[in-house]
Amino acid sequence: MDEPRVGAASAEDALVVDALRAGDEKAFLALVQSLNPPMLRIASVYVSSRGVAEEVVQEAWLGVLKGLPRFEGRSSLRRWIFGILTNCAKSRGVREARSTPFSEMGSQDDEDEPAVDPSRFLPADHPRWPGHWSAPPTAWAEEQVLNKESLTVVEAAIARLPVNQREVITLRDVLGWSSEEVCESLAISEGNQRVLLHRARSKVRAVLEKHFAEGEAR
Amino acid sequence: MTRRVPHELTCTEMVRLVTEFLEDALPLEDRTRFEQHLVYCKGCAAYVRQMRKTVEASSGLEDTGLSAEAEDELLRAFKGFCK
Amino acid sequence: MIAYKFLAAGRVGPFTGYTWPEREWVDALSAREGAGIHACRIEDLPWWIDHELWRVELSGPVLERETQIEARRGRLAGRVATWDARALAEFGVHGALRARDLAVLALGDAGVRCDDLARARTLLDIRAALEALPALSGVPAEMAAYAREACTRGLDGAAGTATYIAAVAATALRGPSGFAAERAVQSRWIAERCGL
Q1: Which of these three, C49, C79, C109, is where a domain ends?
Q2: How do strand C26-27 and strand C73-79 relate by DSSP bridges?
Q3: Which residue has the higher pLDDT, A214 or C15?
């Protein structure tokens, strides 16, 4: 996976940087093509539209080119590039927020919202099964989960998450980065990351469940 | 109400712990209780499967790149920087 | 050391999703406690039931825990053919029958006549007999409810659930030691049924 490695630049990174500094267009194009998909995905976490995300990625590459002469390899090349991207995306996101109506922004962090509606469980005073399912979940049809419609639902659900949760689920689950790398990239603890991941996944699962249930009801 | 069976996890607790379980971050004793519960509770077994499927769906989101025109523009910028 | 291991269909670990090779040795994922190969002694079997039951050979020091054992290396050493879909289903029925037996005891203690319930041979008959009982309260009501629930699970083929309910019912009637005692009954049932 193209996840940035934890730690300093590798020998491979050094070769790429040398090639770029020497004006090697093929090397630059290869780098751009390989990193644009995850860069766009990350930019989308912070800004409101695909068009803006594309602008952010362009802007980030310009920042990379400007900074290339000074890149020392203290972090890996990808790490450095994604760092520039995230800064661009966040700044752009903040600028957008100043001109975006409050209601259109992402939801506030829903700390108190339970992962599953409490009515799905038997109450604490149930004589035999306190805390057990009253309305248990059922199996999802295999074909349903990964079809185009479901993926659209998942994407929309992720977009509606509070930004902290959106960051973590995008890097971990959408892009497949390791827990270690996400913690380093977002400067959060393992525990904090897990809490955010839990809330994000719980929300998305609930949205998918509702979507499938409504599908059955039709 | 005290639990009928001490130490066992309720379904509400299972839901709360599912991410820690999938992340292999539960202490061994809790992990064992979690696994035992999955054997006798089809609802929680289904919930965990749904969680795994949700993660799988997220990983299936397609990531596309920039347009060819945008890439050309970047290449032009690169050439400009290299002069 | 020979022990046992339940796997999902296709030799798949039910919690890890790992597909076991038929014969080769498998090593622990890491040195971390709990990351080793888990297996069952006979008394552990009821906790872990699944579609396939295998004998496993374990290598090196074996850690004995409350309901499972763990080693650094293991390999499958042949399938227990007598544990098939039928045995799994019958195990569930066993759980429901036991829950019925406990209900009969509780009803008897409370002076409620329940001959039909005691004599019923199938889960459907047990269910019918339960429905025909007069209104109950207290412990008899609770025990009848466990029996009804265990029947439903047994009829659904949810053996793990039905036998769990039987163990919980035993605790309701006999106190905390009832659970382990019922699991012991269940493990003897599996051992006899499978010729272990």
Answers
A1: C79
A2: antiparallel
A3: C15
Q: Which residues of C touch A128 (CB under 8 A)?
A: 142, 145-146, 149, 168, 172
Which candidate from B4, B41, B42 shows the least CB-CB separation from C171?
B4
Domain boundary among C47, C63, C79: C79
For residue A113, give how far its alpha carbon lies from the nearest alpha carbon of chain B (Å): 12
Give the closest residue to C11 by CA, choosing from C57, C47, C56.
C56
Contact B63 A115 (CB under 8 A): no
Cβ distance of C146 and A128 shorter than 8 Å = yes
Using a CB-CB distance cutoff of 8 angstroms, which residues of chain A are in contact with residue C146?
128
Over pLDDT 90: what percentage of chain C? 96
Q: Is B55 on the interface with A (CB under 8 A)?
A: yes
Average pLDDT, chain A: 90
C103-116 as b/e: b if 16+ CB within 10 A? bbbbbeeeebebee
What pLDDT is attached to residue A43? 96
Asked whether the beta carbons of A20 and B74 are under 8 A apart, the reply is no
**% residues pLDDT > 70 (chain A):** 90
Q: How many domains does chain C have?
A: 2
Instruction: Report residue A2's pLDDT band, with 50, 70 and 90 as the boundaries.
Output: low
Asked whether the beta carbons of C97 and C147 are under 8 A apart, the reply is no
Distance of CA A196 to the CA centre of its chain: 11
Q: Which residues of A touch C143 (CB under 8 A)?
A: none
Neighbours of chain B (3+ CB pairs under 8 A): A, C
Q: Is residue A150 within 8 Å of residue A208, measured between CB atoms?
A: yes
Residue spans per domain, chain B? 1-60
Amino acid in the structure at residue B46: A
Cβ pairs B/C, distance under 8 A? 37
Q: Are A140 and B53 within 8 A, CB to CB?
A: yes
- Token pair, residue A5, equals 């490695």
Give how far C195 is from chain A: nearest CA, Å: 34
The number of beta carbons lying within 10 Å of the beta carbon of residue C193 is 15
DSSP category for residue C23: S
Angle at C49 between CA C46 and CA C52, to 5 degrees: 135
- The ranges of chain A annotated as CATH 1.10.10.10 are 106-217
Residues contacting residue A207 through CB under 8 Å, at least 6 positions apart: A153, A154, A156, A157
- pLDDT tens by residue, C105-147: 999 999 999 999 999 999 999 999 999 999 999 999 999 999 9
C42 and C104, same domain (yes or no) = no
